[in-house]
Amino acid sequence: MDLVRHVPDSVPVLVAGGGPVGLATAVELAYQGVECLVVEPREQVSWLRPRAKTTSARSMELLRRWGLAETLRARAPLAVSWSDQAVFVDSLLGREITRIGGCFGLDLVGSDLAAESGQQAPQPLVEEVLREAVGAALLTGRRVTGLREDADGVTVRIASPDGAEQEVRARYVVGCDGPRSVTRAAIGSRYEGRQDARPNYNIVFRAPGLAERMPHGPAVHYWVLNPEQPGMVGRLDLKETWWCIAQGVREQDADPVRLVRNLAGADIEVEILATDPWTARMLLADRYASRRVFLAGDAAHQNPPYGGHGFNTGIGDAVNLGWKLAAVLRGWAPEALLATYERERRPIAADTIETAAANMSTLAPELADPALMGPDEEFERVRPAVAEAVRRTKDREFHSLDLVLGYTYAGSPIVAPGCGERLPHRWLTPGESLYDRLGPAFSLVGDRGAPGADVLVAEARELGVPLRVVDLPGEPLALVRPDQHVAWRAGHPSGALRMALGHA
C-alpha cells in the first residue's frame, strides 16, 4: 500500500473519489493546467465488478479531446466493429425473437453526427486508462472522512487504512465519492427520488465453450425473455468471460450457477467469478454545491443502467465543472462562474434519470410470454407480437442520441439566447474533426475576417482568456466554450466573452 507517500499540505483542488468521474475531473483540470489531488480508497481497480460497460459517443468525444479515445479503443476487449446489436431470445442457446441494430451509437464510426462512436468497454478499463492519465495526482489507499469549509478554502480530513488522519487544505473540493458521499453530507445536500422495488442480481462468470455454441452471432446484449428466468447477458471479452443480470432475483434466493444455466437454457460449464445484488435508484441531489464544494457523478445523481447513461452523465459533469474551476483558479473568470455548474448540469441529470426510468419500465419480465417457451409452432405464433412490443418499447433505450449528443445549456446565464448546444461536429479532412482544431479554453470558430472577430480577440486579450481562432473562411462566427458548447453566435459580439465567463 502507498502508506509512505508524501501528501501535500495544500492543493488548488482536491477530488474526493477516484472512480471514472473523479478521474475525469482530474484529467480535465490537468488539461486546463491546474493541479489537483484525487483521494481514492481502492489501491487497484477490480475487474470483477465491471459496472458500466458503455462509453457513449459524447464521452468518447471528450476522451478524444484529452487524447485518450484511441487508447481506450485499442485496449477494449470488444472492438467497436464487433457488434452493435441487441438480440432478444428465449434463451442464450435457444431461439431468436428479434434484434435491434445501431445500439448506443456504436454505428457512428466516420459519421457526420459525431467525431467518435460509442465504445463497449468495462468500467475498470475506463478507470485504468484515466488513472494512467492522472498519474501522480492520484493518491490511493486513503479516503476523505470529513471536510470543513470557510471563506478562503476547505480543510479536508484524510484517513489511512490504519486509522491515521491528516488534513489537506484546498481552494475547492469536488465530491465524486458516490452514493454514500461524505462531501454531499458535508454541504447539507440530500438525495431526492425513489428506489425501484424490483431486485436484480449481477453475475460475472466464466463459461468455456459457450461462445462456440451460441446460435445468434455477436451482440452487445442478449435479452432472455424466459418468464421463469428473465434477464440480460453479455460478453466481457472474446475469451470466456461473461456478465449477466438476473432480474427479479433476491440475494437470499440466488443460486448463481443455476441462474446462469437457466439463462443459457442448458447445463453449461460455469465458474462464478463475482456476484453483486442491487436495486435501481432514481435519485438527484437537491443541491450540487456550496461556495467551494461541488458534487459530481453518483454523489449528485443516480439513475437505472438501462440506456447506458450512468457514468457518462458524470463525465459531462467533470468537464463542465473542471473548465470552470480552472478558469477561476487561473484568473480569467470570476468566482461567479462556478454557480452556473449546478444550473447547467442538474437539469441534464434530471432528464437522464427520467429517460432511464422510462427505459426500465419495460424489461425482460414485462416482455416475456410463456408461449415463447413452448414448441416451435407456439413460439412462432406469438413471436411477431413480442417482437413488435420489443421494438416499440426498447427502441429509445438503444437509440438515444438526442439525449447523448443533443442536450443543451439553453437558458444558462452564460450562453446567449438561442445557444448552448454542442458545436456541430464535421470532418475537415479525412480523420480530422473540427473539434481537433479547438483550443483547451475558448475558441472562435468561423471567418477570421468577419466583422466582430477582432472585437472578440481584443476582448479575450483584455480579460487574459486563452482564445484559439479557428479560421473557416465564409463561415459565420461562433464562440465555443472549453466543453465544445456554443456560447454565442450571430449579432454584435461586444461583451460576448464577458457574458460567457459569468462577469456581471
SSE topology sketch:
Blueprint: E1 10-16, H1 20-31, E2 36-40, E3 54-55, H2 57-65, H3 69-75, E4 86-89, E5 96-100, E6 119-120, H4 123-134, E7 138-140, E8 143-149, E9 154-159, E10 165-175, H5 182-186, E11 191-195, E12 200-206, H6 210-213, E13 221-224, E14 231-235, E15 241-247, H7 256-264, E16 271-278, E17 281-285, E18 293-295, E19 301-302, H8 310-329, H9 340-360, H10 364-367, H11 376-398, H12 401-404, E20 427-429, E21 432-433, E22 442-446, H13 453-463, E23 467-471, E24 478-480, E25 486-489, H14 496-500
Parallel strand pairs: 1-2, 1-10, 2-7, 4-13, 10-18, 22-23
Antiparallel strand pairs: 3-6, 4-5, 8-9, 9-10, 11-17, 12-15, 12-16, 13-14, 14-15, 17-19, 20-21, 22-24, 24-25
Structure description:
- The protein has 14 helices and 25 strands.
- The model has no long low-confidence stretch (mean pLDDT 96).
- It has helices at 20-31, 57-65, 69-75, 123-134, 182-186, 210-213, 256-264, 310-329, 340-360, 364-367, 376-398, 401-404, 453-463, 496-500; strands at residues 10-16, 36-40, 54-55, 86-89, 96-100, 119-120, 138-140, 143-149, 154-159, 165-175, 191-195, 200-206, 221-224, 231-235, 241-247, 271-278, 281-285, 293-295, 301-302, 427-429, 432-433, 442-446, 467-471, 478-480, 486-489.
- The termini are far apart.
- The protein folds into three domains: 10-50 and 122-194 and 282-358, 3-Layer(bba) Sandwich (FAD/NAD(P)-binding domain); 79-113 and 197-279 and 369-400, 2-Layer Sandwich (D-Amino Acid Oxidase, Chain A, domain 2); 427-500, Glutaredoxin, CATH 3.40.30.120.
- Residues 11-354 form the FAD-binding domain.
- Keywords: FAD, Flavoprotein.
- It comes from Nonomuraea fuscirosea.
